[in-house]
Write a structure and sequence with these properties.
It is a single chain. The chain is mainly alpha-helical and about 100 residues long. It has one domain. Helices cover about 50% and strands about 10% of the residues. A two-stranded antiparallel ribbon has the order 1-2. The chain starts with 9 loop residues before the first strand and ends with a helix.
Length: about 100
């Protein structure tokens, strides 16, 4: 996370790494173009090809993100999968014990 009141060291054009990010950028550009036409009129045609810029920050300008602790979480899916695993292992163990009894007798 960026520390409070920090200014970017450099501004660069936003680059789309995925198709979804490319679509988000196209929508954002359309929204900016529409907002510019509503407020400025003719001046938006000169900024129609303007790129969306992103700020770059140094390591000293950031701090690590620390999420809130997880409290009172219960997941039934884990219980179901563990019970299935327990039943499967018990079946395998019984089969192996039966084979061992046959071998010893």
């Amino acid at each position: 996370m960026v520390k409070a009141s920090e200014q970017p060291m450099k501004m660069v054009k936003v680059r789309a790494g995925t198709v979804n990010k490319m679509r988000e950028l196209e929508v954002l550009k359309d929204e900016l173009r529409v907002a510019g036409q509503d407020g400025e009129g003719q001046s938006s045609s000169s900024s129609g090809g303007a790129d969306i810029m992103q700020g770059l920050y140094a390591f000293s300008q950031t701090e690590p993100y620390i999420p809130d602790p997880v409290v009172n979480v219960s997941c039934r899916c884990w219980k179901a999968s563990f019970s299935f695993l327990h039943q499967t292992l018990a079946y395998i163990a019984n089969v192996n014990l039966l084979r061992l009894d046959v071998f010893l007798s």
